[in-house]
Automatic annotation (TrEMBL), chain A:
This is Peptide/nickel transport system permease protein. PROSITE patterns: ABC_TM1 (PS50928). Belongs to the binding-protein-dependent transport system permease family. Residues 95-292 form the ABC transmembrane type-1 domain. It is a multi-pass membrane protein. It comes from Bosea robiniae. Keywords: Cell membrane, Membrane, Transmembrane, Transmembrane helix, Transport. CDD domains: TM_PBP2. It is found in: Cell membrane.
Automatic annotation (TrEMBL), chain B:
SUPFAM superfamilies: Periplasmic binding protein-like II (SSF53850). It is found in: Periplasm. Residues 1-29 form the signal peptide. This is Peptide/nickel transport system substrate-binding protein. Residues 76-425 form the Solute-binding protein family domain. InterPro entries: Peptide/Ni-bd, SBP_5, SBP_5_dom. CDD domains: PBP2_NikA_DppA_OppA_like_2. Keywords: Signal, Transport. It comes from Bosea robiniae. Belongs to the bacterial solute-binding protein 5 family.
Amino acid sequence: MTKRSPLRALLQFVPVLYIVSLVVFVLVYLTGDPSALLIPEDASEADRLALITAWGLDQPWYTQYLHYMANILSGDFGVSYRYGTDALPVVLERIPATLTLTAGGLVVAILIALPTGIFAALRRNSLPDFAISAVTVLGKAMPNFWVGIMLILIFGVWLRLVPVSGSGGFAHLILPAMTLGTGFAAELTKLIRSSLLEVMGQDYIRTARAKGVPETLVVLRHGLRNALIPALTMTSLHAIALLGGALVTETVFSWPGLGQLVVQAVYVKDMAVIQIAVFVITIMALTINLATDALYRLIDPRLRH
Amino acid sequence: MPLFRPTYWSGFILSAGLALASMAGAAAAQTLTIAQGNDILSLDPANHGNNSTESALVNIYEYLVDKDFSQGQLRFTPRLARSWSTEDNVRWTFKLRDDVLWHNGDRFTAADVKFTIERAQQDKKLINASKFRRIKSVEAPDDTTVVIETDRPDTLLLHYFVGNGAGILPKAAFEKAGGKEEFFKKPVGTGPYVFEQWIKSDQVILSRNPRWWGGTPKWDKVVIRSIPETTTRVAELLTGGVDIAVNIPPEDIARLNDNKGTRAITFDIARNIALHVRTGKDRVTGDPKLREAIDLAIDRDAIVKQVLEGHGKPTRGFFPPAIPGFAPDLNTNIRFDPERAKALLKEAGFDGRKRPAIKISTPSGRYVKDREIVEAVGGYLEDVGFRVQVEVLDWTVYNSRLAGDGFGELYLWGMGSYTDASSIFVQDFKRHYDWSDPAFEDLARKAGNAKTEAERIALSQQAQKIVAEQRVRIGLLLPQSIYGVSDRVVYDGRFDEMIAAEDVGRP
């Protein structure tokens, strides 16, 4: 890990964004034009052709692409075919919901995984450790879709503790965050357990113990701190995946995040929305990478230079 | 444009504590909550081709006339227009109400009607740009009179003033907003409910219009939610989170009826499910005998009973009886004759050892039980000697295939939301089915110039018979719609699947 200035890192992303935009454009273009998905069922062929001409979809792809890129450089990110409005706000207004859900899922995962993982490592090969192992395998094996519906049926329909679906309040966040969090918690628990076990066998832990440092302090201050690096890596990768939209969870709970938007946009080949969403997700991924780097340095002084 | 909508965050924080409390009395008596299967696409009535979007918009905007199916056949009733008349089906005079106010307080006049029509004609990027294509001129001689002329006799004129793209928009407010983008951020209509907020992929919130010309609207607030997952929609209904939930699968009917406080309603709708047939010479379905065999091999009754659990009707035709111009014989004379089908296969040169291969494509989840219907059809065709391949496709791919004519021999199609059987003439039969018939084309030409409604109806009935007899389309069934409804509201469903909040009562 070398020290990078954030600005330089951002600049390195310009060519990446450009290539991504070209690839997305060509892929979407190759799957055909959106007219058939937009017009009413009883529209005639003439109506469809008129719409294609009006949107400039009868031009060759490179003309469309150049036109599109020229507009972007002048600050115009294009119009959503589906919504008939500027595409940029259509994407940006989904970000708060996506950030909320991502944060909620990660918090749930960390709150479960951190104590459980430590406990399992400290009681290695005990009955509780085996039980935790079994539960984590189960947690990883259960599909999100099923977990979500079970949570709805138990906490929403049966116990009536929380709202079944929708967004708007903290209560609405509980079930989707649990759905996203539990699966990841299983993965994270296993990782924290194994990296903590590995660290605990190191020389400096033995030194600390020999100096008479209490075991709790040995684990928390000397062990955990070093064991956290791989957990942080995995969490940041997971966060990036979630920022791209947690489609299944969003659909089950009708949560208005990026995932639903992007999939719907792909369905109707809504080029401008797809492009902006890819930009936004890429930029968020970069930001998380930079933040992770900073956290690495905070946790591990050896990485500061 | 704000990068993040502050309303989202503030709403989130404010409601954090309140959400649990408000759960208890979800429908605070005066709020009507409707759960649809998808989000609305637009607040612009002229810029979407989607039934559930229109279902939300009918509460905000109003049509000149209403479509009324309550008597069993479509008839037009007054709405913003008090009356209308024509002598030659070319020049139409509408007399408008003089007591209608826009949500912003402006008075509704004939200029608004003229504006709505001309705007749709001029903005070619609108999805419903072709809605008023037959209208040559619109005049507004005074505030309550609109005179419309069509390019030639057009007995369908009233049909243009209902459905997608027919909501009347305010000229002054639209122009003052400086374009559609701005106007539709906070749109203004004349309807019983006023637009408040649209949280995309989540909900549309409307409030009562206290100055509505039709009296005081029934509900303080109307919330139209988008809940794509069926299980979640049902769960919301069971827990009282919503009052009406659309598109309930037949297998959930008993559950809703057994639960205290909810019930399922079923009703006829403007939709039909048919097999569309590619009749090119390079395909086995190019042989009329084999097409007839397909028609005779399918037990439509059994499909309706088993797959739809009885919530539909078998048909060989393409329109339900409430649609003007439907062909009645096609809904009654339904033959299921597998023996004759086998004989036809033999006559066509397939003796049992050699079997004609057929591919049937279907979407999954687009229409009620679409995939299951096609699987059943496939089974029946196998029984009489066809070799069948069922192809299940994602809706996007399905649509691209349709546009590019990339299907095999048969594909399932659910036409809907029509108001007249002359829509049979809209599709390009040559392109989609590789089929042309001089008699049919003659009928299409004549229907476009029909001088009376009776003439148009007769022409489209003949056309349906030709299509059914030649098995270019093989009608299968007329599905019903199934909604879940809470006992807090009184609702029976509407043939056109519009949920106008004013149609929903309280017990």
